[in-house]
TrEMBL record:
This is Uncharacterized protein. One of its GO terms (molecular function) is pyridoxal phosphate binding. GO terms for cellular component: cytoplasm. It comes from the Eukaryota. Homodimer. The keyword Lyase applies. GO terms for biological process: carboxylic acid metabolic process. It holds the Pfam family Pyridoxal_deC.
Length: 592
């Protein structure tokens, strides 16, 4: 045990600097006051050092890094510093000093060069992004206008490299100015949360950096995908989990596969002859469906005009009579209807289309039934909530994003289908350089040719790891907690002055409502009421972004003025969070 290791003297000198050893100015400040914070912060830079005790001392007039500096112990003064008595690992000091070295160009981890740096990065990530970033007491964003951010943040690339110290600073700045989507009050979009097991899975994915196209390069991930996709098909209700599936970079792409498979099933010539071989094709989806259906129709040459949008009821569910009428209309026009894309959990209102009725119509007219359950698919986990998707087992294909209701890290989206072999038929090309048929193992495990991607990230790992961690029961509890929170939130606002529901009984965990400031509450009959209400949500959004206290999105839809859509998928929230969020709306709207 030695007094005052070199590491700590250096630390003290950083009182007036930032971003040294991963200690920011604010931490240095608090070091002077709080023992806990001090120890907390010193565990970070000096991994192998135990603080035994510390004392205040006066700063020498000329500070240096030499170990011989004479610090004088004092009781209190403006110039006070801190002297540590510590047990230290001297090797760390040597590595510490390397932090000022420039990063090296070789893309190979080198223990003596990178271990400490990576540990420090991980410490910063854990402290600032993972724990502070999800702490209710902290702001979830630090909004700056683009011009301001360009000044505050060192975006520019240069001929010269950076030092590890500078890189730590950049890491930290990136965290500071990013939105903490794992924060409990990030309730803005259909994804959120920072699942601890998902995070580790994500990190592991990146440490291994696989590409899931052949068994040879991704043996574990290939079998993991097979397992998870089969389990998901069982949960959907495909018999014995039979069928096929792939992980896609997002639900939009999964929906695109639905379109591609549906078309290939009816017109296999499309693959080689292209669009010229086809009549005009028409598909159907509701007017509340996700925009990716139209986007994919454009992308794949079907054309967005050939996506017939079916009316929805007040709640946002597809109108079956209109669906059949539109199908008949398209046939009368001489076009060929080929697919219906139903939605389970619409993006804004959270509505579930009536799948059994849609399946009947698809059978009657020989249409492919796709179910876009990107958002609502998670409800399948729970016996209580899977009723919302009754009939999904009759679908030809399903989009289901575990990165939404199940809070797997971005991105994690599955495309599932009941048909075996169709994916490979529609998209396979047998690239001889990659999918050699004369390999020494069973090449049916070279699954990459089913995809339109070549290299592909192993999105399965983080989800599989979460599933392993929590068990299916844990995922059920997660879903039920999130739905219960949403129901509780709805109950809180349904009859509360200032709140008005877009629909009184939301089906999913996205809840749409207006906040009506006091100044507008008695003006309902005024001519400009709608216009004024339309301006409320954007004004409140600006305020919440600038204060950084929560994030909730808004939109206008179905001829309504702007309304809020709050979204829950984080099972770490509880009833008092629901109460807090309601009060936060009232606070933000109080002066409007
Ligand atoms: C989010 C969403 C999508 C798109 O999924 P991404 O992963 O964001 O591409 C598609 N459909 C519905 C219903 C969605 O809510």
């Amino acid at each position: 045990m030695q007094p005052l290791a070199k590491v700590y003297k250096r630390t003290i000198h950083y009182r007036n600097q930032t971003h040294k050893f991963g200690i920011s100015q604010s931490v240095i400040q608090s070091m002077r006051f709080s023992e806990n914070q001090l120890e907390e912060s010193l565990k970070m830079p000096a991994n192998n050092v135990n603080i035994i005790s510390y004392d205040k001392f006066s700063l020498p007039s000329s500070s240096s890094d030499e170990e011989t500096t004479d610090y004088k112990k004092i009781e209190s003064s403006d110039d006070e510093g801190i002297q540590f008595v510590a047990q230290e690992d001297y090797r760390n000091c040597i590595r510490m000093n390397k932090q000022n070295e420039e990063a090296h160009f070789e893309s190979l981890p080198n223990k003596s060069r990178h271990e400490l740096f990576i540990r420090q990065c991980v410490d910063i990530l854990l402290k600032e992004a993972v724990f502070e970033g999800t702490n209710r007491k902290n702001r979830l964003l630090n909004f700056r206008n683009p011009d301001e951010l360009k000044k505050l943040f060192d975006f520019e690339l240069s001929v010269h490299g950076s030092t590890h110290d500078e890189l730590l600073g950049l890491l930290r700045d990136t965290i500071t100015f990013s939105v903490k989507t794992g924060h409990p009050y990030f309730v803005n979009q259909l994804f959120s949360s920072l699942d601890p097991y998902g995070l580790v899975g994500q990190w592991l994915t990146d440490a291994l950096n696989p590409s899931v196209y052949t068994y040879e390069v991704s043996p574990v991930f290939t079998l993991m995908e097979e397992t998870v996709l089969r389990e998901m098909r069982k949960i959907v209700g495909f018999k014995d989990g039979k069928g096929d599936g792939i992980f896609c970079p997002g639900g939009s792409i999964s929906n695109g596969y639905g379109l591609s498979c549906a078309r290939h099933k009816k017109f296999p010539d499309i693959k080689t002859k292209g669009l010229n071989s086809l009549p005009r094709l028409v598909l159907f989806t509701s007017e509340d469906a996700h925009y990716s259906i139209k986007k994919m129709a454009s992308f794949q040459g079907v054309g967005s005009d050939n996506v017939y949008c079916i009316k929805t009821d007040r709640r946002g569910k597809m109108d079956i009579l209109d669906l059949e009428a539109q199908i008949i209309k398209s046939i009368e026009e001489g076009a060929v209807p080929f697919m219906v894309s139903a939605t389970s959990g619409t993006t804004v209102l959270g509505a579930f289309d009536p799948l059994n009725e849609i399946a009947d119509i698809c059978e009657k007219y020989g249409l492919w039934m796709h179910v876009d359950a990107a958002w609502g698919g998670g409800a399948l986990m729970s016996q209580k909530y899977r009723k919302l998707l009754t009939g999904i087992e009759r679908a030809d294909s399903v989009t289901w994003n575990p990165h939404k209701l199940l809070t797997a890290p971005q991105q994690c989206s599955a495309f599932l289908l009941r048909h075996e072999g169709l994916l490979a038929e529609a998209h396979g090309l047998n690239a001889a350089y990659l999918f050699q048929k004369d390999k020494f193992y069973d090449t049916k495990y070279d699954t990459g040719d089913k995809h339109i991607q070549c290299g592909r990230r192993a999105d399965v790992l983080k989800f599989w790891y979460m599933w392993k961690a929590k068990g299916t029961n844990g995922l059920v509890k997660h879903i039920e907690r999130v739905f219960e929170n949403a129901e509780y939130f709805t109950d809180l606002i349904r009859n509360r002055p200032g709140f008005e529901m877009v629909h009184p009984e939301p089906e999913c965990t996205n809840i749409c409502f207006w906040y009506i400031p006091k100044s507008l509450r008695d003006c309902k009959d005024n001519d400009n009421y709608k216009e004024r209400l339309h301006r409320v949500a954007p004004a409140m959004k600006e305020k919440m972004m600038k204060e950084g206290t929560m994030m909730v999105t808004y939109q206008a839809q179905k001829g309504h003025p702007n309304f809020f859509r709050i979204v829950f998928q984080n099972s770490g929230l509880n009833r008092s969070d629901m109460e807090h969020l309601v009060q936060e709306f009232e606070r933000l709207g109080s002066n409007l």
